[in-house]
Amino acid sequence: RDNVNTHEQFKRWVRPLIQKMHSYDVKIIINNRVEVVEELNAHGVHLGQEDMDPKTARSKLGNQKIIGYSTHNSFEIKKANQLPVNYIGFISCKF
Fold first, then answer.
1. Which of 8, 10, 50, 75 has most Cβ atoms within 10 angstroms of its Cβ?
2. How many Å apart are CA 32 and CA 55, to the nearest integer?
3. Measured between alpha carbons, how far is 62 from 89 in angstroms, rounded to an integer?
4. What angle do CA 45, 68, 81 make, to 5 degrees?
């Protein structure tokens, strides 16, 4: 949403969605906002190459949360295989 600019605005917008989706057992993955995952009990976070390090995110979120990680090339894929992530996304991957 274009009008969701601040951390607090985002939390106000996403909180009801997370609560509703929990009742349907739908997984909610928040993009690049580890603190929102912690505060609102979303299922996980998706991180990019420029975002928080997945090791730091894992130490904050524990083993029960899902962590995804974006990759763009074979080097990043190999690196991601050594990280504490549950899945990797391929964006414009060239081999």
1. 10
2. 14
3. 21
4. 145
